[in-house]
Every structure is written in C-alpha cells, then in structure tokens.
Amino acid sequence: MTGRAAPAPADAAVPRRVAYLGPPGTFTEEALRLETAFCEDTHIPMSTIPDVLDAAANGDADFGFVAIENSLGGSVNVTLDNLALESELLIQCEIVMPVQLSLLAPPGTELADVQRVVSFPMATAQCRTFLRTHLPGAEVEPATSTAEAVRTTADAADPHTAAIGAGRAAAIYRLASLAGDIGDDHEQHTRFVAVASSGIPAPTGHDKTSIVIFQREDVPGSLAGILHEFAARSINLTKLESRPTKEALGDYCFAVDLEGHISDDLLADSLLNIQAKKADVKFLGSYPAAVWQEGDATRHQADAAWQRARKWLADIRDHISD
User: Fold this and answer.
1) Is the peptide bond before 244 cis (omega within 30 degrees of 0)?
2) pTM of the shown model
C-alpha cells in the first residue's frame, strides 16, 4: 500500500459512511480495509461504481471509494467520466495498491475443465496473455466486479466455470486457486480515490490537482496554448487524457493531473489564465499525492522564483503616483 495522508480518521463515536464497489472481496474493499484513515468507518458495499458515486453525491454516504486508474488497463472510464461530466464530487485522497489477479474455481476443478471465465471487464483485459495461452477456447463473460464474479461462480458451483479475482475473495467464497498472479503485468498497481461532495484537503507540500479542461474553440494550437500555461511555470503534468463529452461526435475534453495544490500561486495562476482566456476548467480536487513526485523540487523552486518576481513588481508599483 502506497497511499498517504488520507482524510483524518473518524471519531469512534460517529463513524463515517464510506460507499465502495462491492460485494466484499473486491480489490476496492481490500484497499479500503488497508487504509487506516477509513478502517474504523462504516463500509457500505454498492453494486456498481455509479451507485458508489451517487451515494456520495446525494448524502447517503460521506465518502465514495472507487478505482480510477490501473497501470496496465489505464483509466477506469466510468469513474473518470462521472467525475468529469456528471457529478460535482471532489477527490479527497488517492491510494495506490499493488494488484494480483488469480483464476478461481470450485474445489476439485482442474484448469483443463474450465470452459467459461467470468470477471470485471478491466480485470479480464489485464489477463489476455494468460487466457490466450492457457484457455484459448474459454468463453469470457463480464461481471459488475471481480468479487461479484467470484460470488456467482461459488454459488453456481459449476466445475466448468472459473472467475478472475483477488485471493482474498477465494477465502471469503470458498473457491480454490487454479493459477495466481495471472495478469500481463506482474507489477501492476491500481489507483483508488476517495471522493466527497465538498472539501479541499489542506496542502501537504506533496500534492496533486485534478482538473478537466473544456476547450471553447477547436482551432489549431489551442491545446498547445493551454499546455504552455503549465510549461511556462514548470508545473509537471502527471496525466493528460482526452475523453468524449458525450455531446457530439468529435467533441472532447481533457482530464489532467498536475503536481501541486490549488493554494500554490503558480498553479492557481495557470488555471486563472486558462479559465479567463482559453477554456473552461472544472476543478476535481487538490489532495495528497500517493507517491512523492520527482518534480516537487523543481515546482517549489519555480514557486519561490514567482514569489520573488511578484515582490519585485509590487515594489515598482509602490512608486506609482496617486
């Protein structure tokens, strides 16, 4: 677990409600259970990621806890699109956890017996090489989560059906592991975020800011102009991804993760310029980064230089006649 500085633990007398993608046994639940800031809270399993986010948005939960990115599969689009286009939720913290996928089946099942594999589509996509090599003729079916796939496989007790899921889920639902660590990337990690309807965590000095940029005009060089605002201030982008706005074919927005906090003068100034001159900006949150970024030192040096330049300009303006 590589998460840091999640929201402060709840008062034991008033546990918070944290909605997560269930049922018990998902990687999301495992990350939630391992994060000390949430371990004393009430965990509420939900059937789908939109259900989790809706619960956080409408007050049925204090936080929603969902996967947003995988090192192999990329962004979890249902999470990213909801935050960018549908809800007004703010990211409170991020947690990064290593993920190992296993092939699980009823006790007594042999690998050669498997004719059908069930799992969450992103998990299945992360195991293409294993499936192509060892189960080339197996039918692959989607499930709403890895744990739901494991649970339905256990309930059916079909010796020809296996699920891809977490080793912990096998213990919960009494399945046997036919093969472990079957993902294409044996060092893969998943990034999870806690979201809430309001609140921006205080800066820690090692923070990340997430935004969505909606271009006002689709003209040559417009994106380059936006990115120049960050480059000119030595602000490092850790992620840049285009997503359809779902309004018209070819109409895209850009999801961006930046090093820094909205309270940083340089970052705030860049967003101010973009909002005023170039594009609409949706703020998704400033929060502690799970892994310290190499660009922190450069950003702090640039921020200090910016402060000196502001003082220089202020000293000159002090001499303007009334």
Assistant:
1) no
2) 0.80
